Amino acid sequence: MPVLPQTGVRPGQQGPIISAWPIDFFISRRGSAAQAAQEVADVLSDEGYSVRVQDYHFGPGVNFIAAIDDALRRCRDLIVLLTKDYALSVHTMSTELGNFLAAATRADGERALIVLRLEDCDPEGVMAAHVYGDLTEIEDPGKRREVILAAINRMPTALRPPRRTVHGLPPRIRDFVGRDDMIGQLHATLLSAESPAPMWLNGLGGIGKSSLAAEYAHRCGGDYAGVWWARAENRTMLIDSLAELARALDDRLGSTFLPRITEPPDLEKLAQTGLAKLAARRKPWLLIYDNVVRPAAIEGLIPPGGAARLIITTRYSDWPSWATEMRVETMPRDAAAELLLKRRGGNREDAARLAHALGYLPLALDHAGAYLRRTGSSFTRYTARVEELIGKNVGDQASVRATFDLAIQRATEERPAAESVLAFLSVLAPERVPLDIIDETIVTDAERDDALIALTAVSLVRLDPFPDETEAITVHRLVQAAARARNAAADGNRAIIEKAIRRLGQAFPDNGYSEPRSWPRCEKLMPHALELREQAHRANIANHDFAFLLDATANALHGRGAFDAAVPLLQEAVAIARSVLAPRHVNLGQWLNNLANIYMNTARYAQAEPLYREAIEIGTETLGRGSFRVATRISNLANLLMETGRYEESERLFREALQTVATTRSKGDPMYAARLRSLALLLYRTERFEGSEVAYREAIAIGVTASGQDDPHVVLWRGQLANVLRDTGRAGEAEPLYRVAVEKLATSLGPVHPSVAGARRELARLLITTGRAEEGLAHAQEALAAHEQTFGRAHTWTAGSAAVVADALHALGRGAEAVDVRAMYRSGTEVLS
Asked: Does the predicted TM-score (pTM) go above 0.70?
């Protein structure tokens, strides 16, 4: 499109004149109006006006927002091509229209907003009072040109639509954010059929159901003949409002199909008559029943099929099939942070942390924003005091906690067990509490079911199964806070936390360290165990049950290679045991052994050894030297001695442990196989390959019989047998064992587990020695990355993988790189020592 002269026109004056504005017109539109934008631009260009349209003037690579801003500053008049989707766009309404009008107010009437309607929708809000031309039913190009030119000369040609009835609609929320998609979905659903089903917006109290409905009415009300907002907390209030609607219709609209209302004494019949009048209208009305308690409360008050469109907001979660559900969830993280920033400027990350602490709940975000604005406090200070501050009123705004207290009270009145179930849920993590841990120690099965019916009915909790379909419940963190406040008021918090600790300790698998098949269960319980740890700290709980849960949780983390997370839990368990249990308590011995295992696997041998020896002493006193549990501790100490080069003592202890298990269990027991595998490793380390191979093969055979070919222990042992085969010249037999170990261990343990990295490193050694250094380098680098991620640079296993990387580089003729790698990780090893 050519650049045209900078010309202009004054109101009521025909033809272009020289203008002080660089651009006469900027055309604002949504994507559906691209063709009309070109038509309007062509008409104006033919008349000699200068026009800016994004389609022509904002080329590829241009900063779009900056270009829009520049055009809005430089144009005299803004032409809006009004379509149904225009008002739904935050960009067009705030960035283009809003910015232009803000600037136009300072131009002393020289600048104008010109609205050209393209679809069946009326100018609303700020657009309603500006020049209005209607192209919706005009097809003749000449007549369309006349309308366009009349409009830009500021001569409206369209009649204003009749004033719509808008009743009870709450004021528009200035800082409404984050629900554009839902508003679009509401609009499409309600206007997509001749008589669509009512829409029911359900969700937790404070989730923003009413705000969403109100914003929809403000944005899209122009597509309706009227908007009627009816409070519906109880049936009487709703009937009163609908009776008022009936009178308003009778006074204003009349009807050729129904008799005029003669003020019958029965308000319910009057309300139903008004709803019937709506059904007879040509253009639809929007009804909003706000805060309906349950379906029975609006029975007989659903508008008949026709022109009425109904939105129901409710906490009730189980509506009949005659309504279409739209569940309202918490706000997206970024939108929640943006809302806080609009209320109280500050650091975005601090706002995001506060939004997370508030569970992205709109009511709580609004409450926090009001508090911060009034007090001048910071996001960080509010975050530190969330549970206290959500219980405070802010001006005439009731506290967040009060909203949930009412819902909890309602559920408890219907089902008394709801209080006990919610109290239990309040001290766990909010997301996905496995349903089966709410057992008879909490409430009976029948009481649990009754409680869940009552709690889900008012959206205090919701069923939220795991991907594997394990039944679970999710509860919002602020509902938990309200429940904890109720517990505290009844002096029950400590007892509830102790009960939850005891129950979760019973539910947590006791083999999370050694049995990958238990890991899915551990994963489901892990967040709740960690949350209970925080709750126990706040309540100053340090008892045997708590130490027991800490141990089980730490073992599961240890088994998955999460060493840094596991260590403090076991340290705490040991400290509690030393404080509250007998000095030689049997469980203290077990927890000392488990803590030593983590130290051992993170190469902290000096810290591990005295714990192993103390654990063996306690076990010998409480269980007897011949106990298989003591044999496990002896074998663990033997492993440490082997790693630190004390092979003679190590072998003696390995053989003692092996004999103990053979005596107390059997030679076909998986525990015997595990002890035998440890001896096989020692024999390999001391280059007694023949004995090592025999021991490995016997351990593998026992493992296969007991647990199957794909058991992770069996797969790992086969990978270790491959070391013997490789080092005795049988690389062809070793290679498939390595590859199977890498593949299957990655599947069962995860791709960065230390056992996977170890198998990958040994495969790399084989590949390098058999002339395939390129592939060997790839495996060695993956092993190094995994070991460094888990242990850091200073661990001996990390240094071992780095050495294999260096060997591969050297074999590929990249000697300088090999030297650098060795130097880099050698320094780490020195730090470790």
From this structure: no
